[in-house]
Amino acid sequence: MSIKNVALIGGTGTLGAPVLKGLKESSFNVSVLNRQSSKSNYPDVNVITVPDDLDVSKVTELFKQNSIDALVITIAGSRVTEQKKLIEAALNAGVQRVFPADFGSCDSADDKTNEVLPLMAGKKSVRDYLISLEGKGKLTWTSLITAHFFDWGFSNLLLKFDVKARKAYIIDGGDIKFSGSNLDFIAEAVVRVLQRPEETANKLLYVHSHHVTQNEILSVLEKVTGTKWEKIHESSEEQLRKARPKMLEGDHDAGEEVVAVWGIVAADWSDRKGFANDLLGLKTLDLEETVRRAVEKVDA
């Protein structure tokens, strides 16, 4: 298996933009899929204009014309139908590797997680579809489970820290170890997978750039900011009890709260089967350096 030409869809998103940057800095030939009605602009990269409805036959032909070997999907994981169309086109065109939009805070392969967060079911269904295609044509897949987008999480309440207000919402005492991945680290993980196509084929892989507790983060936040933060203690059980019913009724903010909490109490990748930092040659990053950069960006 030899991968040279890589296509990305979702290249202006929170994750897609750094993944595109990482791919452009690699040795791969990079293309971006851009819908016909999109206003997105991608300088210095090959743009493949695709129909808005992602018509499978047309996308198949475009993949063939551009000799695409791998497809990285960084659109929202909830967009199941669109992902399956892209995957079908990839299969038909002889694409060798697909990354579904499985990146993110929680483990869509975990039964308890799927019970707590039904939105994970979409990610699982896409991966199940890929599994069903194994052995058909050249297509293989890799799912990268990254845990919370760590550095990005300081600009919102994903990690339960309000940087501007200097408030820390500490879950269950703050000593739970959890995983998180900086955005550029995830981009590097994608590149490393593509550089190791045989070892990573048809695998669910877990990575993290940080393996920390909230209390460890808070200590560094107080050092970096030179201030004592207000601590608000919360119970994960109580937060989930309050937020989940609202989430199930379609409340977006409640859904974000469930993801934030569950991504702390149930996202320790260090002992997961498939933890792939060593396989991919990835090292954890310095916590203080990440926190300092994140705080400077929020406070700017």
Please provide a written account of the structure.
- There is one protein chain.
- The chain has a 7-stranded parallel beta sheet, sandwiched between helices. It has a 3-stranded mixed beta sheet with strand order 7-10-12. Strands 8-9-13 form a 3-stranded mixed beta sheet.
- It is globular, with a radius of gyration of 19 Å.
- It is an alpha/beta fold.
- The protein folds into 2 domains: 5-146 and 181-206, NAD(P)-binding Rossmann-like Domain (Rossmann fold, 3-Layer(aba) Sandwich); 149-179 and 210-268 and 283-299, UDP-galactose 4-epimerase, domain 1 (Alpha-Beta Complex), CATH 3.90.25.
- The chain has helices at 16-24, 56-65, 80-93, 111-116, 120-132, 183-195, 214-225, 236-248, 252-265, 277-280, 287-299; strands at 5-9, 29-35, 46-50, 70-73, 97-99, 140-145, 148-149, 161-162, 167-171, 178-181, 203-206, 210-212, 230-234.
- 40% of the residues lie in helices and 18% in strands.
- β8 and β9 (167-171) form a beta hairpin.
- The chain contains 11 helices and 13 strands.
- α1 packs across α6 (183-195), α3 runs parallel beside α5 and α7 (214-225) packs across α11.
- The mean pLDDT is 96.
- The longest helix is centred in the first third of the chain and has 14 residues, at 80-93.
- InterPro entries: NAD(P)-bd_dom_sf, NmrA-like, NmrA/Isoflavone_reductase-like, PCBER-like.
- Pfam families: NmrA.
Kindly report the average pLDDT value.
Answer: 96
**Form type:** globular
How would you name the oligomeric state of the polypeptide chains in this document? single chain
CATH architecture of the largest domain: 3-Layer(aba) Sandwich
Q: What structural class is derived from the secondary structure elements?
A: alpha/beta
The order of strands across the largest sheet is: 3-2-1-4-5-6-11
Residue runs with pLDDT of under 50 for 5 or more positions: none
Whole-number total of structural domains: 2
- How much helicity do the residues have? 40-55%
Largest sheet, in brief, is: 7 strands, parallel
Number of helices: 11
Cα end-to-end separation: 46 Å
Specify the CATH homologous superfamily of the largest domain: NAD(P)-binding Rossmann-like Domain
CATH first level of the largest domain:
Alpha Beta
Order of helices and strands: EHEEHEHEHHEEEEEHEEHEHHHH
* DSSP strand count: 13
Indicate the radius of gyration in whole angstroms.
Answer: 19 Å
Give the CATH topology of the largest domain.
Rossmann fold
Beta-sheet strand percentage?
15-25%
Protein name: NmrA-like domain-containing protein
Keywords: NADP, Oxidoreductase
GO molecular function: oxidoreductase activity
Organism: Periconia digitata
